[in-house]
Amino acid sequence: MSIYQNLLVAIDPNQDEQPALRRAVYLVKKNGGKIKAFLPIYDFSYEMTTLLSPGDRQAMRQSVIDQRAEWIKYQARYYIEAGIPIEIKVIWHNRPFEAIIQEAIREKHDLVLKMAKQHDKLESLIFTPTDWHILRKCPCPVWMVKDKPWPEGGKALVAVNLSSEESYHAALNEKLITESIELASHVDQTEVHLVSAYPITPINIAIELPDFDPSAYNDAIRGQHLLAMKSLRQKFDIDENKTHLSKGLAEDVIPEISTKLQAGIVVIGTMGRTGLSAAFIGNTAEEVINHITCDLLVIKPDGYNTPITLNEEI
């Protein structure tokens, strides 16, 4: 059995085409599993209708919920008729990202899929505030889907951090690769590639230290990263020609390599910080996310604790 068996699809209420649902159906056809098409809705005007009793307001809410559920059922009718197991759930909630994350936690979903808007001219993806909240705070993996068919021979590009000696980075690297390989084995044998960036020589050091040799420094840094990449690829039996190591910033290197490979998806990890920094997914990760032009899979480390708490089910 493959990972990602209990899929939660965040439905876009503003369009009939649902790329995230389409991608989820593709995964279920390949991997098995089930889908929940989920839509949190809210209309403030219903809350302002003071002339109605609470019971009447509740009846009006339920009427809207029922209408939207029928609309989703109509959009998914061909999938349902084909035997794809799709549950439809619509709730009244004024904070969509909270509702989505709470549903993922409550029902133990192992993957959330949501459509990402695409910039018409720049090809890059556009993430709404709701998207960012989900990416930062959802404990299970989040797949942001681009509204385009999966490219022919599309590859999975896994961004690994080779610059840190911290054990949690090594554990997250291995989790990213393990889940990507397992998923790829069930999706038309998709190729898994690894990518990492190593830093450029700091200019200030070269200026302040006359005896500093930038070329030797670059060679040493590159050598360290090559050894780390070799160790990682050998552990997972990945061919050398499927590993990519470039000098520069990760936010430049990763989108560049993904475009060059015509990758179908970039897989990236986030450390899921707590406290004040929990609001941020990580500067490097955020910059990478802002520049890619394909699907995105964001995975948290084991033991991540979301700041979102469960409310009573609505």
UniProtKB/TrEMBL annotation:
Keywords of this entry: Cytoplasm
Signal sequence extent: none
SUPFAM superfamilies hit by this protein: Adenine nucleotide alpha hydrolases-like (SSF52402)
Top-level division of the source organism's lineage: Bacteria
Protein's UniProt keywords contain Cytoplasm: yes
GO cellular component: cytoplasm
Cellular compartments annotated: Cytoplasm
Record-linked Pfam families: Usp
Main subcellular location: cytoplasm
InterPro entries in the record: UspA (IPR006016)
Domain UspA span(s) in chain numbering: 4-146, 174-300
Cytoplasm among keywords: yes
Family as reported in the entry's similarity comment: Belongs to the universal stress protein A family.
Function: Required for resistance to DNA-damaging agents.
Protein name stated in the entry: Universal stress protein E
Species for this entry: Thorsellia anophelis DSM 18579
